[in-house]
Design brief:
Layout lengths: L2 H31 L14 H9 L8 E6 L4 E7 L5 E8 L2 E2 L17 E5 L4 E2 L7 E3 L5 H5 L8 E3 L8 E2 L2 H16 L5 E6 L5 H6 L6 H17 L5 E4 L2 E4 L28
Parallel strand pairs: 1-10, 8-9
Antiparallel strand pairs: 1-2, 2-3, 4-9, 5-10, 6-7, 7-8, 11-12
Amino acid sequence: MSQFTMVNRMYTTLGRALRIACAILVAISLAACSQFVGDNRQNVPLPKALVDRMTAIGSSPSEPMVVRLFKQTSELEVWKRTTSGSYALLKTYEICKWSGALGPKVREGDYQSPEGFYDVTPGLMNPKSSYWLSFNVGFPNKFDQAWGRTGTNLMIHGDCKSVGCYAMTDEGIKEIYAMARETFKGGNRSFQLQLLPFRMSEANMVANAGSPHLAFWTNLKEGTDAFEATRQPPSWDVCERRYIFNKAAPGSQPLDPSGACPVSMSTFQAAAF
């Protein structure tokens, strides 16, 4: 056997061994990353402790839910409907990061996290997010569109990074996403999302009385006051370019967001928004 043939066989054997070693390392790495990889991450089951907490407050995974976010204190709350028919606070999560300052998102590229009332449907859920898991908040909604506000792909997601979104830890978004998934499985078509600058107390409103967003926040406070008084998510619509809450009769037609509010609704000076 020539020296050339021996060297060639040696390199061939070495190359085969290296390919096998690399394949083994890749398999080990994937197994170590997570029990749930690829498309299965959206199926992570709810932790037993969280289900037990639901039971303790008289709720279950299939019951409707409400999500409330408060920018100033970087908190996200999940509320669940209980056997009494009212909603109770289930759990509070720390928001890892949000973008911009207190106040609404106005235009694409302003790096501002939105504020307002939104309805999240199954179609807004994103199991293949680059930020572990995510769901679209639904911006721009009817109110935002009435004001000509622009922006796309505004999410609540994992990975603790935000460019206009609300970022949670991966562990946090796993639970929140799973709760939304189970709510939809229970036959609920959506859940309400309240994106708020701060807790809408009278003290906080006075503290922020000099803000150019005061009229907008006063309008949002109508909705949060209704929720806190009744422990029920308020129905909302838009007319005269402002939110109205719990005003529409069942089965009534949606309002024109830029048109006049029905006579039964109080008028409002919208220019301050």
